[in-house]
Amino acid sequence: MKKSSFVLSLIAVFGLNISYAQMPSMSKHAQRGVQCTACHDRSSFKPAPVSKCIVCHKQDELAKKTERLNFISKMKNQKTGEIKEHMALINPHDSYHFGKTEDCNDCHREHRQSVNDCATCHDVKAWGMKEPK
Ligand code: HEC
Ligand code: HEC
Ligand code: HEC
Ligand code: HEC
After folding, report:
1. Mind listing the pLDDT tens digit for each residue in 7-39?
2. d(Cα 61, Cα 55) in Å, to the nearest integer?
3. First and final CA of the chain: distance in angstroms?
4. What's the rounded Cα separation, in Å, for the pair 97 and 100?
5. DSSP string computed for 79-132
6. 97 and 121 in contact (C-beta within 8 Å)?
7. Does the beta carbon of 90 lie inside 6 Å of ligand 3?
């Protein structure tokens, strides 16, 4: 959708009093015909909770899709020479820190550029992860 018609539809549905000017245009969802109301209640305009997302994206399936990212990490004990292996759980949908409980919006944004929350602290390039859409 073009930005102008996006703005028009905002005005039509919600009146003029929301800050639509701050919302960049379109996303993966608009192109697939996912309506505003799949994520927002008509009456209030709060950021969509995870409960809305998982109506369409099942968390278990999601975790399976990105499970391949987990890898075996090897660490050598410098004194003994012993090598220890463990699975590094970098699957963003079932991670070491948060399991399956992390809020989708920490990474996937609807009206702004998405970010990888793990990159706040880790070098995610080394993990071979795609940019979240
Ligand atoms: C797939 C779910 C989804 C869809 C579809 C969606 N939104 Fe959102 N919306 C969000 C999320 C998540 C946020 C908060 C995070 C962000 O800004 O990306 C948000 C934030 C907003 C906000 C700001 C609310 C605030 O308090 O910060 C407005 C206004 C808004 N959306 C309007 C719309 C309109 C209008 C549409 C339809 C054209 C729409 N949204 C479609 C998920 C969605
Ligand atoms: C009404 C159903 C519906 C809801 C609700 C919904 N989505 Fe989607 N989403 C889709 C469809 C359909 C697609 C496009 C097909 C696909 O790639 O799965 C999509 C695509 C995506 C993609 C891009 C996948 C890719 O690699 O192309 C992401 C990321 C995503 N959704 C996250 C979210 C998040 C986060 C929320 C909650 C804020 C949400 N979705 C809510 C139906 C939905
Ligand atoms: C820590 C950041 C992070 C969180 C939190 C997160 N995702 Fe993702 N998501 C990603 C990344 C990164 C990818 C791409 C991974 C890859 O394929 O390399 C992705 C991929 C996806 C895809 C495409 C999957 C595919 O391969 O078809 C969908 C759909 C999606 N996420 C939805 C969600 C939903 C819904 C939630 C909340 C339940 C969520 N994500 C939580 C980072 C995140
Ligand atoms: C606020 C900073 C911060 C964020 C955000 C963060 N981490 Fe971490 N992470 C750490 C610290 C500090 C450690 C080392 C201490 C520990 O193990 O808890 C760590 C440890 C880990 C480990 C264990 C190391 C190993 O070899 O197994 C994994 C895996 C990991 N993080 C994955 C992730 C993933 C995936 C994300 C995003 C979903 C993420 N982290 C987000 C700070 C962070």
Report:
1. 445 444 444 344 444 444 557 888 888 888 899
2. 12
3. 18
4. 9
5. TT--EEEEEE---TTSBTTTBT-S-GGGT--SSS----GGGGTS-GGGGTPPPP
6. no
7. no
53: three-class secondary structure by DSSP: helix
Please give the C-alpha separations between residue 34 and each of 52, 111, 117, in angstroms, as whole numbers.
12, 14, 25
C-beta separation of 92 from 118 below 8 A: yes
| 43, burial (CB in 10 Å: exposed 0-12, middle 13-18, buried 19+) | exposed
- Summarize pLDDT for 44-79 with one digit per residue, the tens: 778 889 999 999 999 999 999 999 999 999 999 999
pTM value is 0.90
Site residues for ligand 1, CB cut-off 6 Å:
10, 18, 29, 34, 36, 38-40, 45-48, 105, 109-112
Q: Which amino acid is at 124?
A: V
